[in-house]
Automatic annotation (TrEMBL):
It comes from Tindallia californiensis. Belongs to the PanD family. It catalyses: L-aspartate + H(+) = beta-alanine + CO2. This is Aspartate 1-decarboxylase. Heterooctamer of four alpha and four beta subunits.
Length: 126
């Protein structure tokens, strides 16, 4: 089994940081569906503003709300307005991994999806 890149929401804007919540990241349901990320799934969050990386699980947020909210202790690692990359991984057999294509959701400054891609090419900047 290989641990492979499954999905990504690219350059999402943090809308909230809620320290007094139990934990997790709340993500707009529309973004979750487009990326093929489900509630409870483990994700990695990479903060483009300060370089922090963390892992947590996903909670479904209101559809089309644009919400990207880090909850609990993770709230200390982000600020509203920061941009982040949310990455999900999956386990695949080697033969499956050779043909698997991830979902990459590109969003605008309001976390509205503008494009879904299935490949990353070195040198492409968004």
């Amino acid at each position: 089994m290989l641990n492979m890149f499954k999905a990504k929401i690219h350059r999402a804007t943090i809308t909230e940081a809620n320290l007094n919540y139990v934990g997790s990241i709340t993500i707009d349901k529309e973004l979750m569906e487009r990326a093929n990320i489900i509630a409870g799934e483990r994700v990695q969050i990479v903060n483009n503003n300060n370089g922090n990386r963390l892992e947590t699980y996903v909670i479904e947020g209101e559809r089309n709300s644009g919400i990207i909210c880090l909850n609990g202790a993770a709230a200390r690692l982000v600020q509203p307005g920061d941009t982040c990359i949310i990455i999900a991984y999956c386990w695949l057999l080697e033969e499956e991994a050779k043909t698997y294509t991830p979902n990459i959701v590109f969003v605008d400054e309001n976390n509205k999806p503008v494009e879904v891609s299935h490949e990353e090419i070195h040198g492409n900047i968004r």
